[in-house]
Every structure is written in structure tokens, then in C-alpha cells.
Amino acid sequence: MIIEGRVTTGMVKYNAFYPAAPMSTKQQSVLGNTGKITFTGPCIICSGTKIYVAGHLTLSEKCRICEMVTIGCFTSVTIGTGTQITHRCQVYDTHYHSIAYLNEGTIPDIDRPVTIGKYCWVCNTSTINPGTILPDHTIVASNSVVNKDFSSLEPYSLIGGIPAKFLKQGLIRVWDDDITAGITEFYRQHPGEIYRFDPSTDPGHFL
């Protein structure tokens, strides 16, 4: 395991437990590493996760691997800054088992790298398959199966489905806790109304 940059006590939280999390569990996490794991900054890995690395797994700063997530890395898996992989998701750069195509006489490679950009939000119970590339600020809808290169998409896109496809552009997860608290308070005081903001606002405002 490698930590790039300044090392501080508690910067990598492993088997973290959050009682209010949607899939809170005190189940122990499993970590098998015969390859290389690189941390580029503070990172949270929640309880009940299963991570096996025989290739190179990169967990960038401020990323969060939520409860009951499984990661299998045999070549390369990169998870970008601020990205959140939510509960019960799977991230694999391998299909684990080879399949022979009898009519073609071929056996395809089962391993392909996975790259997930910055501040992506992979919603619960989704599967990220080998060869997946997600641009920065991509939202993956719940229960989706992602299995291809989406690098041609514009940032702030929503994809989803089985298999996942482009659904909508111009969405960003609100990450800022103060803004989130303000939105919650607005809806408490103004039920039935819509919280509005200036569309020209820099998206970085929500990070």
C-alpha cells in the first residue's frame, strides 16, 4: 500500500461504521491485497466491504466506498477524487471466468481496466463492469449495469439502466453539507415549493 503526499493520522478510515447510513452494518470488511493499493489522500472505506487486489487499485482523495461494496481489481481500477460508490455496489475490472465462443473459436480477454472520474456518484446496487470509463461528475442511477466507455459524455450526465445508457445532462450531486442543510430547511418551511438557484452558478459551488 502506498500513500501519496502528506500522511496524517486517521486519513484512511477502514471498516468505518455510520449508524445513519442507508445500509448500516457492523459486518467486518475483507481486504486481500497481492497487488498495489494507492491512496492519494483521505479516504473512507465503510463496513462490510470486500476488496481484492491483484492489480493496481487507486483510491483518490475524499473518495468514499460505502457499506457492502465489492471491488475486484486484477489489472487497474481508479476511483477519482470525491467519488462515492454507494452501498451494495460492485466494481470489477475482470469477468473472473473465461467464456469460449464455440462458433468463432475465440476466448476473449476477461480483464479490462476501470476508470471512474472525479466526484462521480454511483448509486446503490449498481455494477461497474470491466472496460467502464466514467467522466467527471457522472451520476449512475440505482440498480444499473455499466459495461462500456462513456468518456464521450459531457460532465454532469446521468446514466442508468441494464445495460446503462445516457439519460440526461446537466445534473450534479450536491456535496456541500451547508447547502444540503439549507435545502432541507427550505423544504421544511416551504412544503410544496421548489428550491431554486441561479442556473449560471459555477458547478464547483456544490462541491
Please tell me the overall pLDDT: 96
Principal-axes geometry comes out as globular
**Main beta sheet:** 8 strands, mixed
Query: Approximately how much helix is present in the residues?
Result: under 10%
Q: Count every helix, treating DSSP H or I runs of 4 or more residues as helices.
A: 1
Spatial ordering of strands, largest sheet: 2-5-8-11-14-17-19-20
Taken in chain order, the helices and strands follow as EEEEEEEEEEEEEEEEEEEEH
State which percent range the strand residues make up.
25-35%
Stretches where pLDDT falls below 50 for ≥5 residues? Answer: none
CA-to-CA gap between the ends? 28 Å
Q: How many β-strands, per DSSP?
A: 20
User: What Rg do the Cα atoms give?
Assistant: 18 Å
The secondary-structure class comes to mainly beta
Task: Describe what you observe in this structure.
It is globular and about 65 Å long. It is mainly beta. Strand 19 (157-160) and strand 20 form a beta hairpin. The chain has one helix spanning 177-189, and strands at 2-3, 12-16, 30-33, 36-39, 43-46, 50-53, 56-59, 63-65, 70-73, 76-79, 84-85, 90-92, 114-116, 121-122, 127-128, 133-134, 139-140, 145-146, 157-160, 165-169. The two termini are 28 Å apart.
